[in-house]
Amino acid sequence: MHSIILLFRRIIKFFLARPVTWLADRFSSSPKRENVMASLSKLYEESVDQPGKKSGSMFSFDPHNRSIIIFSDQHKGARNGADDFAVAADNYKAALDYYHQNNFFYVNLGDSEELWENNVFSVIKHNADVFEKEKLFVDSNTYCKIIGNHDLYWKNDPFAQIQIKKIYGREIKIFEGIVLRVQLNGKSIDIFCTHGHQGDAQSDGNWFSKWFVSYIWGPLQAILDINTNSPSTNDEKKTLHNEMMYEWSIDQKNVILITGHTHQPVFNSLTHLERLYLRLEEAQELKDAAAIATIENEIPKRRREYDFLNHSFRNMNPSYFNTGCCCFEDGNITGIEISGDAIRLIRWSKINGVSTRSVAEEDKLLDLAQRI
Known about the structure:
The strands form 3 sheets. The chain has a 7-stranded mixed β-sheet with strand order 5-4-3-2-12-13-14. It is globular. Helix 3 (89-101) runs parallel beside helix 5 and helix 10 runs antiparallel to helix 11 (289-305). It folds into 2 domains: 2-266 and 319-371, no CATH class; 270-315, no CATH class. 43% of the residues lie in helices and 20% in strands. It has helices at residues 2-26, 33-49, 89-101, 120-126, 128-139, 153-156, 160-168, 207-224, 235-250, 272-286, 289-305, 365-371, and strands at 56-60, 68-71, 105-108, 143-146, 174-175, 177-184, 187-194, 255-259, 266-267, 270-271, 320-322, 333-339, 342-351, 354-364. By secondary structure, it is α/β, with parallel strands linked by helices.
């Protein structure tokens, strides 16, 4: 039976892969600037002006009283060979234990479940242990779920809340974005959190296009083993995404934008590679030979991951952040913490077999607010 299914899949792929790829190129889903800007602005305005009524909501919070952790892009699958999350599951569960014990509010920023390649029943069945960790936040009313392009199901399917209730024991609100409003020495700062697929014609269109992606286009790509629109695996689209998100953020007043989607961490509008070059310049000015050697050894490794530098990286406005993802090939996960007087890019990785938290980048919120 298995061999028959494989043969059937090869036949379908032979006949459909080329025309499907042509259609994707012809009617490209790569986001257009005007669509991205309009879609982000609309969602932000709805979140602020009509919180909870449409796609977004707004929450006022004091990071000294309530800390926040933002993770995105787990892509929970069926724990099989195609499941990118499987290798990172231990670090993710350990991280959720830590943040629940330390009374963090958890913002799950989209693509939490991989529902293009898997049906929802399979994902629920094979991730019961992970959902139990998330349920800790649901039970303490410290959980917010936001959709991405790979889990549009949660907003599109009329029966989605039935599955949500099976997972978490009760229904929960699901958003496309939220605004966290922070008061810092009398200055109000909005931290706008959304997955980041806004402006993508495949995933951010009208109700029919969203339905088509959820039930036809996504599964078809999985069957044909092709991916025509994945910023997470395409350097050109990562660059385009980062540019558009950054451009939107600098046009706003007193707003910080946090997204996921690309699986590439961005902090203060800079990628890891760009931050390395800034550190190299600082080390060279200080004539710190040891630091220079360490950074020069690190740069080629990062260039293999993502070989692009924004020509303005020395003068970026620190208004755009990206959480990275929870499904790196080495099992590491990254996220954004907002706690006390700081915002941090954190990494969870196994050290001697133990899931361990480390701080990759950190900035003072008040300093950041004064620079945006």
